[in-house]
Amino acid sequence: MTTEKKLGIWMDHSSAHLTEFKNGPIETKIITSAFTHDQKEQSLGKSENLMHNKEQHQQAAYYKKIGEDIRHYNKVIVFGPTDAKSELLNVLRADHNFEKIKIELQPTEKMNETQQHIFVKEYFSKH
Predict the structure, then answer these.
(1) What residue spans of the chain are helical by DSSP H?
(2) How far apart are CA 92 and CA 1, in angstroms?
């Protein structure tokens, strides 16, 4: 029998903090979106349509990067304050490679790294 690999992801539209649930020291990997607030301001000055196209393209690349990490796990909890977690889930559900991975969402407030680690430990200790 293989051991289940579990991952917690705190995310918003600008960054995702990936925390593996395991014995031993906990490490967090951070993935950031290429679409920054400065880019949004710059693009708005040019064209709103251009800004939305650029934002959609960069958000899709951001979700794809997160998905590449999720593939290595059996159970994933995605939590955070924005709709980014739902958007990520919609992208993953469209890809059959994620069918066997149990992915759950839970809304939370903004958290620091220590709070994220505690949340992941408590969540997977119960599930």
Answers:
(1) 37-46, 48-70, 84-93, 113-126
(2) 26
